[in-house]
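Dear Dr. K.,

Following up on our conversation at the group meeting, I've run the structure prediction for Tetratricopeptide repeat protein from Marine Group I thaumarchaeote. I'm pasting the input sequence below exactly as I used it, so you can double-check it against your construct before we proceed with anything downstream. Let me know if the numbering doesn't match what you have in your notebook.
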Amino acid sequence: MKRELSKMLEIASKLCEDEKYTQALKYYENILRIESDNVAAIIDYGVTLQNLGLHKQALEMYDRALTIQPKNLDALINKGSVLHTLQKYSEAISCYNIVQSLDKKNTMAIAYKGLSVGEMGNIPSAIKYFKKALSIDNEYELAQISLDTAKRIMKSY
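The predicted structure tokens came back this morning:
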């Protein structure tokens, strides 16, 4: 059974890579029918929903995963990302703060936190987060692009 579930996850993941999200959802639903607490499937299901723009449903999946594994970094980062998309920046930052308390060098959480802080209007602080992410991984593209954008915004003031 484990091997079958693993194969189904693989197929669903490949479908997502090919942007065949609705087909992938069917695989995740089947996996979760068999193993309702499969955290990897729950998170990937949430990501797929998020890719389809179904943010509230994606949020429900991340919360479900966090009920099973409260310290799951992927679920926390993805939940923060959905909250950011829904313009709930403070709530998104709370998710990133939890990730940082568990993994101080999580560049994605640091950079995403910078994005939310920037959206709240604190560009100088956002720049600090992007620089911090780059100090950990100097090739982290999202942080570099965000830093360049934030610097351009600062110059236009």
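Two things stood out to me. Residues 89-157 form a domain with the Serine Threonine Protein Phosphatase 5, Tetratricopeptide repeat fold (CATH 1.25.40.10). The chain has a mean pLDDT of 95.

Best regards,
J.T.
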